[in-house]
Specification:
- The structure is a homodimer.
- Chain A is α/β, with parallel strands linked by helices.
- Chain A has 2 domains: about 150 residues, Quinone Oxidoreductase, Chain A, domain 1 (Alpha-Beta Complex); about 150 residues, Rossmann fold.
- Chain A is about 25% helix and about 25% strand.
- Chain A is built from 9 helices and 15 strands.
- The model of chain A has no long low-confidence stretch (mean pLDDT about 95).
- Strand 13 of chain A pairs antiparallel with strand 13 of chain B.
């Protein structure tokens, strides 16, 4: 038995905003799984902003993607044939083997998935890496106290929407920014106290005014997914002893020339600010605590999730590109087994 | 009995680099001290970079200086007449009543000074606010570990030179930047492992190269007194999980137009950096610990201090202006009772 699997490879390294031609669809023929191996059919795969940085050929916290090779990333799949002690046909599994329809594995990096009754794709979003990112970044770095104001940029994304909801659970006033009225309306519907459609405030001065109007009491914790003018505006609106959690800066990932940074960094001193970046791997050792918190919140109905879904491996590049044009609300996913 | 005291007042708010005409020398006549009062003659006064920000009329962590009013700041003085229970003639005292030759006090904000055999002016530098700034910022925020590399900008200043020496005591490799060969030679003489005369590297690219050459193993703790291109170069050279302690940004204090900030802030994420600003008041409650550490180090001969001294109240503005032109090595002081 052999299996034909389609996969997405990096055709060329993008300059600036990635384009469809940076990706290619290819077919590989997989053999039957050997002794100690399993054949997995992916059912869902994740596209995430951090993948953009892996398309650049440089040393970073994750190695770069290689041209002509399939991309990778988180995926949920089903074991369809097994010669491995620990996996049985029908098992759901989590892996980093996204961007392909199927793969053979010797079990390394493969994790059996107990969904606790949640839809399996939740483990690519709220209950997966984006959820852990939100939970760890907000609670362990931002350390919000009850009654404080938390401002979340990119609030309607997979990470941002989780940060908003966790901050509400912790008794904070929450302000979010997003790029459409529809996203803002959704954020209101999940309990965000105040929202800014940043596209209504196209220059830096207007954005600063909007931040101040939305958080007249000042910002205690700013959760940064966007960068650029958002960071300038946040620095203006921060309170003394404020914390800026730097999770992402999606507005600069596609810059071909580095853009100048905020001219108001001296606030770091006069407001005694802490600005701290992180990578989700820092919280891997706390996964059990995260899952405990999250499962409780899900049971109590305190977490709402939303997904934007593309269908078919051939549309994975489209899904990825939508991350940069604001085409996703909540978690961006690709469904692979329709 | 009355006393004639000369004092320096703010004549006008400086725009850009302060000029002598922003200051005026005035005379006041002090009455004899009343019941519960003392008359203090200042012997030493301090000028510090943070005073520049108090010349701007804005809300900040310390209220702005007022035009036509005497400036203030740390000073050491001697009680020359006392009607106060707690102070006797001849007592040495610390106060915030600098920029004047003498003053009347009801004792509030006046602190009797036990010099432990040190020269009294040490309590305006290594054993005073600049020393506490260095100690608190480096140890409590930077948290250097033995064997790590600590980079100190403005290393030959009152704060910077203390940071260098405390980092050496803690077993770190220490790199310092300063603005003259003479300062660099002094830094070497007090044990700094590597020095950069930043004036030899006038553009950003050259400064980045110089940072990398001086710390080829990468920087773990960057103690920031300077800002501007120094911060850009530090971000390039930081190691993963590095800490940037933001104490000052003297290079931007006199900007009339805000300068763009670093274009490489995305390193905050990819290197998981922590950037933290502070004001020395944050460490006031730890003063006893600081004094304990410091007195031990002085006894063991581990702390060298250097002073640059101007003489006479009329030269206090000159002393202050020298802070911004690199005219001081170690602590900048004004001797008042010659």
């Amino acid at each position: 038995m052999t299996t034909i699997s389609r996969e997405i490879r990096l055709a060329s390294r993008p300059t600036g905003m990635p384009k469809p031609e940076n990706f290619e669809l290819a077919e590989v023929t997989l053999p039957a799984p050997g002794q100690g191996e399993v054949l997995v059919q992916n059912t869902w795969m994740s596209v995430d902003p951090y993948m953009r940085s892996r398309m650049i050929d440089r040393k970073s916290y994750v190695p770069p993607f290689q041209i002509g090779q399939p991309l990778d990333g988180h995926a949920v799949g089903k074991v369809i044939a097994s010669n491995h002690d620990k996996f049985a046909e029908g098992d759901l599994v989590l892996s980093m083997m996204g961007w392909r329809e199927a793969f053979i594995s010797d079990g390394k990096g493969l994790q059996k998935l107990d969904t606790f009754g949640l839809p399996p794709q939740t483990f690519l979003g709220a209950a997966g890496m984006p959820g852990l990112t939100a939970w760890g970044g907000l609670l362990h770095i931002g350390q919000p106290k009850e009654g404080e104001t938390v401002f979340v940029s990119g609030a309607a994304g997979a990470v941002g929407s989780m940060v908003c909801q966790i901050a509400k659970i912790k008794g904070c006033r929450v302000v979010g920014s997003a790029g459409s009225d529809e996203k803002c309306a959704w954020l209101k519907s999940i309990g965000v106290d105040e929202v800014i459609n940043y596209k209504d405030h196209p220059d830096q001065r207007a954005l600063i005014k909007a931040f101040r109007a939305a958080a007249p009491e000042g910002i205690d914790v700013y959760f940064e997914n966007v960068g650029g003018d958002h960071l300038v505006a946040a620095l203006e609106a921060m309170n003394t002893n404020g914390r800026i959690v730097v999770c992402g800066m999606i507005s600069v990932y596609n810059d071909t020339e580095p853009k100048p940074g905020p001219s108001n960094l001296a606030y770091i001193i006069s407001k005694s600010l802490r600005i701290e970046g992180f990578v989700v791997t820092a919280f891997m050792s706390k996964t059990a605590d995260f899952i405990k918190d999250l499962s409780g919140w899900f049971l109590e109905g305190k977490i709402q999730t939303q997904e934007t879904v593309e269908h078919g491996i051939e549309n994975a590049p489209t899904a990825f590109l939508k991350l940069f044009s604001g085409g996703n609300q909540g978690k961006m996913l690709v469904k692979l087994d329709d």
